[in-house]
């Protein structure tokens, strides 16, 4: 599969480089060496053995291709890794290698180690997005624009409150991710530390501390809540990022033109149409998010695993879990750039507010006229004037002022105010202020 062409462009390139085959080998090695160290500390391994193992294996050349080939017969990467690494040890050390562990202990713990820096990177990116969004909210707290429902013009809002919703969506996922625990895995063949009695739990706790992972209540070979929690948290971030990309791409449409993605040489160019400036960052974000959604369905459907070891369910988790992390990180890199450099056009927003000839203000006008004309007649007059305004390209307030049911009946200044989108923004500004306070709380 041409991953560099079809998969990696949606991912964080830094994350891809830091999560390759060598990184997985390094994570498995870290688990095994830490296990030998805690066993040595308890007296189950002779003094000095763990250090000798470290010296011999850290300078050895592990054959990644050979490990890869061995997966077909063993079913997972830990089996050929343990076999090859044991062969690299001096004969007197071999018996202490991988002692009390099973292949799932190695793979699950290694994946947690690989994901730990990814969660830190995601947190940093989400904080960066929060900062950029807050700046946009402050700049556009009073910038009126069309609020749209069912893809149609509805009533005025501010661009600041739109961004506030984006920011809250991302921050909610950041706080969710920050609560995620990455637990060590160590239970042995059937999850009860067979042959080691109570030492097994002591080793599990010590392993977690040594590796910087969370301590689980019990080994979780077929209790897959940690994976379910991770996968759904990644999906939530993807959804929040996709919402921003979708909104931005709709605002950048030629006929709307209220915003543009940050410009850069060659960014958004078409292969055949020189005039185009495509919202490529939004496309990459949405493409990544769609893949994460698919991966999440795999993880959710693998949550219930049989007896003491999964048969295919566990195996199905590995790629979707890691790819989700890399895709979400790639999407957030794009979101951060998008928010930091988003080009906003308030004058286009004003133009679109007037696109219906002022009809977008029919609701407040009807409310103003209702006490005098009655509810139904007020609605009819406001709609008639809006259509006349659109067809004659005249200001809505002028057309209304000349309407026989309105002329001399309603105060002209009140009528002008009712037709002004900037005076019918509801709690938009207050919502931005409230959102900023909430965002700054943690």
TrEMBL record:
Hey, what's the signal peptide range on this chain?
none
Reply yes or no: does the keyword Isomerase apply. yes
Could you confirm whether the keyword DNA-binding appears in this record? no
Transmembrane domains' residue ranges: none
- UniProt-recorded name of the protein: 3-carboxy-cis,cis-muconate cycloisomerase
Residue ranges occupied by any Adenylosuccinate lyase C-terminal domain in the UniProt entry = 357-436
Give the lineage.
Bacteria, Pseudomonadati, Pseudomonadota, Gammaproteobacteria, Oceanospirillales
Q: What Gene3D superfamilies does the annotation carry?
A: Fumarase/aspartase (C-terminal domain) (1.10.40.30), Fumarase/aspartase (Central domain) (1.20.200.10)
* Assigned keywords, A-Z: Isomerase
Q: Which family does it belong to?
A: Belongs to the class-II fumarase/aspartase family.
Checking Pfam families in the record gives: Lyase_1
Task: Specify the species.
Answer: Halomonas campaniensis
Give the superkingdom in one word: Bacteria
The terms under GO molecular function for this entry are: isomerase activity
The record's SUPFAM superfamilies line, in alphabetical order, gives:
L-aspartase-like
State the residue spans of region: Disordered. Answer: 257-277
Query: What InterPro entries does UniProt report for this protein, alphabetically?
Result: AdenyloSucc_lyase_C, Fumarate_lyase_fam, Fumarate_lyase_N, L-Aspartase-like
């Amino acid at each position: 599969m041409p991953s560099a062409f079809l998969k990696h462009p949606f991912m964080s390139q830094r994350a891809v480089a830091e999560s390759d085959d060598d990184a997985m080998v390094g994570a498995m090695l870290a688990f095994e060496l830490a296990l030998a160290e805690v066993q040595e500390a308890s007296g189950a391994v002779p003094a000095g053995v763990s250090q000798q193992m470290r010296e011999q294996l850290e300078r050895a050349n592990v054959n990644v291709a050979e490990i890869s080939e061995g997966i077909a017969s063993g079913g997972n990467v830990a089996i050929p890794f343990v076999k090859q690494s044991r062969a690299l040890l001096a004969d007197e050390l071999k018996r202490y290698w991988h002692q009390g562990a099973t292949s799932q202990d190695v793979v699950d713990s290694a994946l947690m180690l690989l994901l730990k820096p990814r969660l830190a990177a995601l947190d940093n990116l989400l904080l960066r997005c929060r900062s950029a969004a807050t700046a946009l909210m402050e700049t556009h707290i009073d910038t009126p624009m069309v609020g749209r429902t069912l893809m149609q013009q509805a009533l005025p809002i501010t661009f600041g409150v739109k961004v506030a919703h984006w920011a809250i969506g991302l921050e909610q996922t950041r706080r969710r991710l920050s609560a995620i625990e990455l637990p060590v895995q160590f239970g042995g063949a059937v999850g009860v530390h067979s042959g080691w009695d109570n030492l097994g739990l002591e080793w599990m706790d010590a392993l977690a501390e040594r590796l910087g992972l969370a301590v689980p209540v019990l080994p979780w070979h077929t209790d897959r809540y940690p994976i379910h929690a991770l996968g759904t948290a990644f999906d939530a971030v993807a959804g929040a990022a996709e919402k921003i990309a979708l909104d931005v791409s709709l605002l950048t449409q030629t006929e709307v033109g209220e915003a543009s993605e940050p410009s850069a040489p060659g960014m958004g160019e078409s292969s055949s149409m020189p005039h185009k400036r495509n919202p490529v960052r939004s496309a990459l974000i949405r493409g990544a998010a769609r893949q994460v959604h698919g991966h999440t369905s795999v993880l959710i459907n693998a949550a219930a695993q049989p007896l003491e070891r999964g048969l295919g369910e566990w195996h199905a988790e590995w790629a979707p879990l890691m790819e989700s992390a890399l895709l979400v990180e790639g999407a957030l890199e794009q979101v951060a750039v998008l928010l930091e450099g988003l080009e906003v056009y308030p004058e286009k927003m004003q133009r679109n507010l007037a696109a219906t000839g002022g009809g977008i203000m029919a609701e407040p006008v009807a409310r103003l006229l209702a006490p005098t004309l009655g509810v139904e007649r007020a609605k009819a007059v406001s709609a008639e004037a809006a259509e006349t305004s659109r067809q004659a390209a005249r200001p809505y307030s002028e057309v209304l002022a000349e309407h026989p049911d309105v002329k001399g009946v309603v105060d002209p200044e009140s009528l002008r105010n009712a037709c002004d989108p900037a005076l019918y923004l509801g709690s938009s500004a207050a919502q931005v202020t409230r959102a900023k306070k909430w965002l700054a709380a943690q």
